Amino acid sequence: MSEVVVPAAWVADRRDEVTLVDVRDAWEFDGIGHVPGAVNVPFDSFRAGEHAVDGETGEAGMLPGGEGFADLMGEAGITDEDHVVAYDDHHGVFAARLLVTAELYGHDPAKLHLLDGDFSAWQRERETTSEATAVDPATYEATDPTAIETPLIDADAVAAAADDPDAVVVDTREDWEYEEGHIPGAVRLDWRELVDDETRGLKSRAEMEEVLEARGITPEKRIVLYCNTARRISHTYTVLRHLGYPDLQFYEGSLTEWEEEGRPLETGS
Q: pTM for the full model?
């Protein structure tokens, strides 16, 4: 079984072996409650510029800067050796962004896990608490993404992929956004097409594979992902890793950077 996206039972059986990270706002974590033992790293704290140090605002796209990210994780008692299980209350899209950010800064992806479902799904059947989690500050080592092999690619590589028959450029935004303007040659896959609204987790493997195959997003292809600000592609990237796709690329700059550089857009469906 893939341990990229993990069910609640998997987490419950390993509570002493993993670090649970809740990326909701602090008022939700404290006021509504959280999974027992979880620490809080709010989503806005690891967006570009939100936790920058000495003017460092990120190496690429929406990354927050390695030093700031390391401080943030260390303050929450997380080390780069921990098995991290992240969750939110939005079907995992914000939690996936934390995991991808950690991977891009050198955290072993085999130690990064997304809770299948979200806080609301957990709360339906399992214990929650409003008690503060004791945190011992730790040292988190973040590596410069340009110094290691990562799935990050730049706009030129995306443009080349659009003309490559062995690659598929995937736009993970909503239909109306895609129709207003997308990278030429990109196929549309709203990230939520892989999510079950009732369970708040992923659809079955068979259902997801049917959706992906219909768009030509298959494991033998090189898959290049983008959205607007790299949040939604984080979820799709994590799901495709879970499904065993071997060749995934991540355009961190996404459409925000693409447009800033004056590159061409296609419109329509």
A: 0.94
